[in-house]
Amino acid sequence: MLLELARWLEQLDSLFGLFNYLTFRGILSALTALALSLWWGPAVIRKLAQYKGGQPIRTDGPQSHFSKAGTPTMGGALILFTVLASVLLWGDLRNKYVWVVLAVMVAFGVIGWWDDWIKIVRRDPNGMKSRTKYALQSLFGLAAGVYLYMTADVPALTTFYVPLFKDLALPIGAGLIVVAYFWIVGFSNAVNLTDGLDGLAIMPTVLVACALGVFAYASGHAQFSEYLQIPRVPGAGELVIICAAIAGAGLGFLWFNTYPAMVFMGDIGALALGAVLGTIAVIVRQELVLVVMGGVFVIETLSVMIQVASFKLTGKRVFRMAPIHHHFELKGWPEPRVIVRFWIISVVLVLVGLATLKVR
């Protein structure tokens, strides 16, 4: 929106040409999202509390969580609104990738909102039926995959790349739809499973979004993509604006979500943000790198899968409780210690993922 205005004003003063630079607009996007989050945050929290939007606490969870009962949830709406506002202000709205990522964010946000609404109104901590939730996620995940495949205009978009190996690339054609489906739906649920402690999910999300922004910028830049020998995806650079907005909005939300949390993200935020990370990774052709950088999300998901499989097959549990962050809580780790140590792991994994830019 403002980009078009700046392009018109550039005819009057060359200073407005700054807005043509992705890095400049990315900074403005992050700062705008951060400012809006801090500005709107208190009002959103008061409104959620007024509508008794408190989070019901599962009775089988750690006893230390019982004191959190009634804390307003659905705070992820604050993240989504600020990201949307920032991208509409600073993004190039003629870019198809911007719209597909925003569409995925809104679609999965609606699923999360419905799930949170059931939890609040019916006081059911389990929320929407798993079958219904998964069906809706699958519908929108497949729709995004089909769109990306149908609009693929360069061979890179239908090629699966393996990091560290510059010549290992597998043409997958329509297999892109399958890859997109698993990454979008998979990371949507992975972030949701991680969102169990104050600030635990949002900081890794911010870190991964920033790293994906680097990949998006390099993928959309002809010289950088050639020099780094990564897939060239024209137009992908504009996703920097979305990644920056997620970083700014996430930090603004963390201001209120840090321990002890004044508001919880809820499924409305976790499902949407995870789906967005998956979508961006598919567009910039860095699916496997996302698995590394989002390793905390992957580990949390695997811990649940291992726990369920072990109990069904042997009747025994591998962890004291899953997801794995609850396991460490029950081992006696204070909640802030679990959170910060998982953040540190995320920083390390993101740096490893970024290192693949040069190691080919």
What does this structure look like?
The chain is an all-alpha fold. It has one domain (2-8, 23-355). The chain is built from 14 helices and two strands, in the order αααααββααααααααα. The protein has helices spanning 2-9, 22-50, 76-90, 96-121, 130-150, 175-194, 202-220, 222-228, 239-257, 266-283, 287-293, 295-314, 324-330, 335-355; strands at residues 159-161, 169-171. A two-stranded antiparallel sheet has the order 1-2. Helix 4 packs antiparallel against helix 10 (266-283) and helix 7 packs parallel to helix 14 (335-355). The mean pLDDT is 90.
Shape verdict? globular
Overall number of domains: 1
Order of helices and strands: HHHHHEEHHHHHHHHH
Helix content: 55-70%
- Give a quick account of the main beta sheet: strands, pairing sense, barrel closure: 2 strands, antiparallel
Alpha-carbon Rg, integer: 20 Å
- Rounded average pLDDT: 90
Q: How large a portion of the residues is in β-strands, by DSSP E?
A: under 5%
Number of helices: 14
Strand order of the largest sheet: 1-2
Model regions low in confidence, pLDDT < 50 over at least 5 residues = none
The SS-based structural class is mainly alpha
Number of strands: 2
Distance between the termini: 38 Å
